Amino acid sequence: QLRQNFYANSCSNVEAIVRGEVAKKFSQTFVTVPATLRLFFHDCFVQGCDASVMIASTGSNKAEKDHPDNLSLAGDGFDTVIKAKAAVDAVPSCRNKVSCADILALATRDVIAMSGGPSYAVELGRLDGLSSTAASVNGKLPHPTFNLNQLNSLFAANGLSQTDMIALSAAHTLGFSHCDKFSNRIYNFSRQNAVDPTLNKDYATQLQQMCPRNVDPSIAINMDPNTPRTFDNVYFQNLQKGQGLFTSDQVLFTDTRSRPTVDAWASNSQAFNQAFITAMSKLGRVGVKTGRNGNIRRNCAAFN
Ligand code: HEM
Ligand SMILES: [Ca+2]
Ligand SMILES: [Ca+2]
Asked: Cβ–Cβ contacts within 10 Å for residue 148, how many?
């Protein structure tokens, strides 16, 4: 059972310590923000929010982070958690008291707030998981080609509603994508349409310019073409204009079952922020480990 003041008696300053390290990292590179937020999502959807995604592979174990769906996780997310963990452990009373999973949850809250998004109280008390395998990632993470039914069923498997799914998708209001993740929409889309017809024409042309055929696979572009460094509801306004980057983004507007929610949040950032906080809190409860199912890792990248 998670609770807000879980570390009140063991490490009462944990929130300030984490925030301080996250602020330092944020001042060095903005990538900290999307990298940490996506890391939290990919952690929670595979074996629950237990920092299983942070484990490094060893000679005998190929870990989650080396599954194809996780290879584009940016290193700055991992680095943020590792640095915050070191800062926490530098305080004698906090040493080996706070889980990597909780530090990731706190850091995620902090990067959202630092980029203009809402802040919220984080429930704590997660333990770190005891396993991490690439094989366990299969089928657990959404793909950018997903339609609404596929998105809903994957999120429902994690206790999240369609409303939660739409709110969380707005994480694509910042951060980057590599060209291969959406090139099917701008080249050879279908027999009838070379370009995905749900894509705004000018935006499609811009995407083709930024991502020419045979582009360097390391090239990444902003997912929100309008406010790429601000956590805001412009994501939903983009969808209304046909500027959703992935099929899984644009479908939230094209499918009439989800469009009313997109329209509501495009014009009401407060309502969106509230829904986002609710959904993030639910995401943070997925598959939480307690008791013998977990421990507090000394090194977030390795089992004790
Ligand atoms: C709804 C289904 C989702 C799909 C299909 C999806 C897919 C993707 C893909 C393909 C990328 C680009 C990766 C790359 O090429 O580097 C990406 C980036 C990102 N995603 Fe998602 N995602 C989804 C939901 C979420 C959720 C729920 C969150 C967080 C709450 C999230 C946060 C992010 C962030 C922040 C980035 C940018 C990462 C960076 O700049 O390093 N996504 N996502
Ligand atoms: Ca996990
Ligand atoms: Ca934005």
From this structure: 18
